[in-house]
Design goal:
With about 160 residues, the chain is of the alpha+beta class. The chain is built from 5 helices and 7 strands.
Length: about 160
């Protein structure tokens, strides 16, 4: 398996993964919206890495190196094809995102659906700590848990 930056030929595969996973369907993501998300990333809206196994895209991670309060990194979306889950794909994708984010600052933030216990365990094993809950933030009736992972001391921004 290789992890590499998103390319134009990867948009359809990533959109199919995103729109096909139950969690993203819970949020109402359509194939069209998923395509737009990845196409916007190619134009610089965010960074995306994909996991490719035997020539097939099996996962993605979308993130911003300065997406939280303009100061810290933010992992916006992670998706692994249903038939590739449990094989370390998510860990490899998070390694790539965290590496890029920690190169520019000491913090990574992300939101996890309160209903997604598996994802909560995954991130907690990776050193993320629960910060709080956001109710009705992403959508009505949806509760998100805010997580943070930090490395090293927080330094003041230089003028």
């Amino acid at each position: 398996m290789t992890v590499r930056p998103l390319g134009p030929a990867d948009v359809e595969a990533c959109a199919a993964i995103m729109s096909g996973l139950p969690l993203w369907r819970e949020y109402g993501v359509t194939i069209r919206e998923a395509r737009e998300t990845f196409t916007a990333s190619l134009r610089g809206a965010a960074q995306v890495h994909v996991a490719e196994d035997a020539g097939r895209v099996v996962g993605f991670v979308e993130y911003l190196v300065r997406g939280t309060f303009g100061h810290s990194g933010y992992v916006w979306a992670v998706g692994v094809a249903a038939d590739a889950q449990g094989r370390g794909v998510g860990a490899r994708l998070m390694d790539a995102a965290e590496g890029a984010i920690f190169d520019t600052g000491p913090n990574v933030f992300l939101l996890v659906s309160a209903s997604n216990a598996g994802a909560q365990r995954f991130y907690e094993r990776r050193g993320y700590r629960r910060i709080g809950e956001l109710t009705d933030y992403v959508g009505p009736g949806l509760t998100e848990i805010l997580y943070r992972k930090t490395r090293g001391p927080i330094r003041a921004a230089r003028a």
